[in-house]
Amino acid sequence: MRHHGEVLVLNQNYEPLNVCTWRRAIALLCLGKAIELEGDSRVVHSAASEFRVPSVVRLAEQIRRPLPQIKLSRQSLMARDEWTCQYCGRHSKHLTVDHVIPRRLGGQHVWENVVACCTDCNNRKGDLTPREAGLTLLRVPQRPRFVPYLSFATFRWALNNEVWRGYLEPFAPHLISR
């Protein structure tokens, strides 16, 4: 987990926007562009001042950005499926991407037809449907709903930070399974 030294940046309306370094966050605070909401126990010193390292900051003014579409990528797919084979439940960093309905049968490369799959299950399934291979999906694949300004993988990772979780939870309560 890499939360050490990283800061969650919220829009003025508390919507998560970004994760930045503590140096960038302190610069935003010094310029009056952000307000500290949560701090770290660490303190950094400049020639004339000392600053508590922030953990969460909120921008002083609302930033308007167009809503991006979540892109289907290997990283986002693995984040959606929590690095877990969707057939046997094995958790691993060495998973493949499986098309539930094989491409030869018209299956498309879309969120609703791809899942994380371990190599054993992928070899067993091959170019068959799950039913033909005697496999059952743990859950039906769906396009993730999430906070659109953070990448899906970053959002899932950020949920592991207990301080940040309270700020993220309202934007995706369906992802909070702990």
Percent helix: 10-25%
Q: What is the structural class?
A: alpha+beta
Number of helical regions: 6
Shape: elongated
Give the N-terminus to C-terminus distance in angstroms. Answer: 17 Å
The strand count comes to 6
In total, the number of domains comes to 2
Low-confidence stretches: none
Note the main sheet.
4 strands, mixed
Backbone CA Rg: 20 Å
Strand content: 15-25%
Order of helices and strands: EEHEEHEEHHHH
**What is the strand arrangement across the widest sheet?**
2-1-4-3
The overall pLDDT average reads: 88
Helix-strand layout with pairing:
Elements: E1 6-10, E2 16-21, H1 22-30, E3 34-45, E4 50-59, H2 74-80, E5 96-99, E6 114-117, H3 119-125, H4 130-133, H5 152-158, H6 162-168
Parallel strand pairs: 1-4
Antiparallel strand pairs: 1-2, 3-4, 5-6
Protein described:
- This protein has 178 residues and is of the alpha+beta class.
- It has 2 domains: 6-66 and 146-175, no CATH class; 74-133, DNA Binding (I), subunit A (Orthogonal Bundle).
- Helices cover 23% and strands 23% of the residues.
- It contains 6 helices and 6 strands.
- The chain has helices at 22-30, 74-80, 119-125, 130-133, 152-158, 162-168; strands spanning 6-10, 16-21, 34-45, 50-59, 96-99, 114-117.
- The strands form 2 sheets. It has a 4-stranded mixed sheet with strand order 2-1-4-3, sandwiched between helices. A two-stranded antiparallel sheet has the order 5-6.
- Helix 2 (74-80) runs parallel beside helix 5.
- The longest helix is centred in the N-terminal third of the chain and has 9 residues, at 22-30.
- The two termini are 17 Å apart.
- The relative contact order is 0.17.
